[in-house]
């Protein structure tokens, strides 16, 4: 939790250090329950450590504004690789542990990364559309697994992301 707080306080390097410590402690004690979330957080912090993604506002209709991630082109390509690896590890761990809430959070982070990197020169539009469609399906399946707690922040964000991807 402290690593996440550091990230929100715009101190992602300190947050990254703490997430690494948490992962090491889990390895040493065999208590890796939060490993999926720590890897997801590590990926988020890695992107933010170098200013990889900035959020900007754009108007989608006359009355509605939304936050859109816009990459720093030279940084996002470099840091997105490590972040993507962290997100994919988080997804795999959450699946193995069968922790649906964490299984939902990690693909959402991966989708946001893919949305941000769609402007990077190394990504083809076909590849991006395929990845986003695949992620949409994964998130949709997990989202529909929940029958309670639909008003939680994670599920509200998942619903909004699903509507955006649809």
| Number of discrete helical segments | 7
| 3D shape | globular
Largest sheet: 2 strands, antiparallel
Sheet with the most strands: spatial strand order: 1-2
CATH architecture term: Alpha Horseshoe
Q: What is the H/E order?
A: HHHEEHHHH
Span between N and C termini?
Answer: 32 Å
Share of helix, binned: over 70%
Characterise this structure.
The chain is mainly alpha-helical and 166 residues long. It has a single domain (2-165), classed as Serine Threonine Protein Phosphatase 5, Tetratricopeptide repeat. It contains 7 helices and 2 strands. The chain has a two-stranded antiparallel ribbon with strand order 1-2. Strand 1 (53-59) and strand 2 (65-71) form a beta hairpin. Helix 3 runs parallel beside helix 5. The N and C termini lie far apart (32 Å).
Topology at a glance:
Layout: H1 2-8, H2 12-29, H3 35-49, E1 53-59, E2 65-71, H4 73-97, H5 100-117, H6 125-145, H7 153-165
Antiparallel strand pairs: 1-2
């Amino acid at each position: 939790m402290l690593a996440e707080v550091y990230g929100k306080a715009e101190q992602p390097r300190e947050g990254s250090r703490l997430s690494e410590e948490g992962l090491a402690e889990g390895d040493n004690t065999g208590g890796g329950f939060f490993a999926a979330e720590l890897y997801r957080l590590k990926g988020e912090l890695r992107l933010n450590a170098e200013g990889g993604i900035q959020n900007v506002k754009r108007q989608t209709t006359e009355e509605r504004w939304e936050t859109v991630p816009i990459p720093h082109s030279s940084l996002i390509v470099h840091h997105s690789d490590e972040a993507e690896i962290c997100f994919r590890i988080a997804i795999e761990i959450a699946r193995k542990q069968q922790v649906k809430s964490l299984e939902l959070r990690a693909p959402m982070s991966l989708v946001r990364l893919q949305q941000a990197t769609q402007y990077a020169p190394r990504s083809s539009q076909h590849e991006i559309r395929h990845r986003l469609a695949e992620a949409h399906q994964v998130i949709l399946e997990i989202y529909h697994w929940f029958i309670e707690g639909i008003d939680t922040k994670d599920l509200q964000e998942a619903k909004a992301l699903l509507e955006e991807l649809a």
